[in-house]
Amino acid sequence: MKFRIMRAALMMLAILGVAVMSAQTASAAQGTRPCPSYYYCFYEHANYQGWHLNYRTTNSGEFNNPPASSGDRRNQLSSIINNGDHRICVYDRLTARPDKLLWQLEPHQDVPYIGAAANDKADYWKAC
Predict the structure, then answer these.
(1) Domain region containing 16
(2) Are residues 13 and 56 in the same domain?
(3) Do both 66 and 123 map to the same domain?
(4) Residue 45 has pLDDT above 70, yes or no
(5) Strand, coil or helix: what is 102?
(6) CATH no. for residue 60?
(7) Separation between Cα atoms, residue 44 and residue 98, nearest integer Å
(8) Do residue 38 and residue 92 come from a single domain?
(9) Global pTM?
(10) What's the structural domain count of the chain?
(11) What is the pLDDT of residues 83-97, one digit of tens each?
(12) Cα 124 to the chain's mean position, in Å?
């Protein structure tokens, strides 16, 4: 009797594990919303609010007068979605020093708030 209960419990865990893996695979294939699939998306405020910049056909970008923008977006970044195929690195451009790496984000990952140490300090990003 005890063996049957343990076997049933293990079978249920295996079924749940397959369901969780399937859901994770499906969400990675669809991308993280609200950023379109295959894009790198950057947002002014936490939780993907405020202005946003979406890049698809490039592996790097500046926040200083980016394409399709109405001005300088440096030192304003607070959240990121990486639906692209590369890890991305976000940097603070420092004068007379190596640029400071603020954040790294793997493909199909997102960060609703980059944290107080990196918030509103980004100057550019690139695939890394």
Answers:
(1) 1-30
(2) no
(3) yes
(4) yes
(5) strand
(6) 2.60.20.10
(7) 25
(8) yes
(9) 0.71
(10) 2
(11) 999 999 999 998 778
(12) 15
